[in-house]
Amino acid sequence: MSYAEVASKGPKQTPEEAAAPQPPQIVTDDSTSTSSLVDVDTPSVRTVPSDYAEQEVKTDTQAARIEREEAEKKARAKAEAVRAEADLAKKKAKSKAKKADSWLTKRFENMGDGPAGALAAANLIAVIGLSGWLGFKAWGLYERGRLSWKDVGLGLGVLGAVGAVEGAFTNYLYKAKGRGKGQ
Hints:
Transmembrane segments: 116-134, 154-174
Distance between the termini: 116 Å
Protein name: Mitochondrial outer membrane protein OM14 C-terminal domain-containing protein
Keywords: Membrane, Transmembrane, Transmembrane helix
Organism: Apiosordaria backusii
Region (Disordered): 1-72
Number of strands: 0
């Protein structure tokens, strides 16, 4: 069955429903409005002063730009002062670190070969002992099935921190002994 057959069986349209819609109507107005034109006789029209060409700042936009440029210059000068202060603080911190470094190096330099060797051996034994103890504890946790990645990470963190301290300690010791023998 086609659409036309189905539509023919339904209720009939009224002539108003069957008619096409009316196109929109255009309203024409032939009168021309002069309200948007400027009347030159009114006081709202401004003239340029006679000294306009000699003025340093001629427009509001130019004045705003000059103010903005001055503010930017002040901000740059302030940033430069802050940067200079930061550089000075960095130099002071570097000087203090160097002073502490030289103090520690002098202490190791003044130490004789016997005590320095004993200190190095004690340091090595302490690191090996700590590593062995951490390994023993980890093995015990592993056997009980309670060893987790958190425990492994903690143990490696402790070993890393001890290794870093030992490295710095050994560096100062060797630096001091190298200076002491070279002089």
